[in-house]
Amino acid sequence: MTSLTDTAPRPSSATAARSPWRAAVVAFLFTVAAALVLAAAFVFGLASLHAGKAPPGVTVAGVSIAGLDRAEAEARLRQELPSMSAGALHLVSPEGTIRVPYADIGRDYEFAQALDHAFSVGRDGSVADQTIGSVRSLIEGTAIGLEVGFDESRLKAAIGRAVAGADRDPVDATIRLRPDGRSFSTTPSADGVAVDRVHAALAATRAMVQAGHGDATVALHASRVAPAFPTQRAEDAVAEAMRQAETIGGDGLVLSHADTRFRIPASELRRWLTFTTTNGREWAPALVSARVEAAVKGITAKVDRQPRDAAFRFGQGNSVRVVPGQDGRRVDVRATAAAIRQALMARTTGSPNPQLALVVRPTEPSYTTEMAKAGAKKVKRLSTWTTHYVPSEKNFWGNNISRPAQKIDGHTVAPGEWFDFWEVVGSLRKLGGVGPGGFINNGRTDPTGAFGGGICSCSTTIFNAAMRAGLEAGARKAHYYYISRYPLGLDATVARSESFVTTMSFRNDTPHPILIRAINSEGAVRFDIYGVPNRRQVVFSEPRVWNREEAGDSIEYTDELPPGARKRVEWPVDGMDVSVTRHVRDAKGKLLHKDTWVSDYGTVTGVVQVGVPKGSPLDGKFVPVP
Q1: pLDDT at position 117
Q2: Which residues make Cβ contacts (< 8 Å) with residue 292, sequence separation at least 6?
Q3: CA 29, CA 471: separation in Å to the nearest integer?
Q4: What is the pTM of this model?
């Protein structure tokens, strides 16, 4: 029978041998666990004891803050440590030194960083780490350094202010043209200064960290900045411009046309010069166009020749012959001036050009020979007018009328040209055959008081002929009183003295010349106007008369006549205002001219002289005739 007790296994000898080691390991682990529990309890107790305060043994910058909360710790540090904002940073530049107080750039201790470290001792990491840290701090203590910090933006701003005062831009030399246009003034250049900003920032930062609680000094490194346009270049530019100007003047210039020479000296050429620039640095001589053209205009009178229009002349009888026209010549001022400028400026590149031909253009007459030949075949009498007079002492027995008429006879008035009575007749004293005649003086006729008196019969006659040819009217003046041999309101007086001129004029406003024929006969003068027919229609209005004042008669007693003798020396002439209007139309009826001539005729009292004996009380008296 099997015993139950025998059924249980027995331990082997190996198993029996391992049992003591197992017990030892278990005992060690238990001890460690117990130690950890105690350490945790220690750490927990220490943390509870110093909650919110710096751990034991902690110092910052050599100052113990153990047992103090964060605010108390910072307060103790500020109390124990020297201030980092009491000093100043000195920035030294070539322009002087700028003092920047530390307080202005926020220089101070980095308390936050140091206190963060201090309050983390024995409180970071695992329980073991915290235990070790706490024990080590208790035994050995924990020393924490304190760094210095500042506001970088404020420091940069301070450096910027210092650099701005030290930096100086370079100044270029300048060249200015003086008011005379032919010389220069210059201003010298100046070097600039540039501060090394990178070096300044690094040096200032280093100084702020290393300065401790004393002042710090930083030298700002500056370098010279050369100008882009230095003084020497400006002086060289002026010298070159003046050299070129002297070259342009050279030995002068000769202008020529055919065999005519005009020498312009170098001194005159230099007066034509000025200088131009595009950038104020490179200057070059230039010629003033207006001055060159003015000089050319000064010599044109010696070269220019006006063209001569073809004209008509009377041949045998009233036949018409052609006087050929002649080309003129004209200096082209602008083209010549341009050629001069080009030639003179070429001298700066080695072309001397001592002589230059004037640019001369031919000029044709306005009325060519061909036009005259074509027109001469068509010439006819366009108008005529005759004035009758009595040869007497008042007109130097007709000579004062006939001699000017002879001077005018055959005169040609070119297209567009004005006929002026005195310009054509000229000086009466040089004319020959002219003598004293009558004129109106203070309302009375002086029979021989004026040289050439009576010439108005000539001027009135040609005026009426020209107006009836439809020509453009010019100057015209009525006599003081109306003279019955002239058409009412259409007389034209002329007179000339040293102090005044009264003339009569008209213009040939037709496309062809007109010819004037003067015909003298006993007691009459006639003017015919010849030209190419233009079918102008000329209409004169009837004279309009107003303000008529009837003239009276009178007797003047004089002892210059035999007693009882009678002599009329002045006829009575009524005073009046008169107007006459002329309309001139072309072949198509277009109005070309409308002229209204107004004449203010004075009243003249008639005078009959009656002789009285010498010494008579009546001598010199006037008696109106009822």
Answers
A1: 85
A2: 272, 337, 340, 341
A3: 151
A4: 0.58
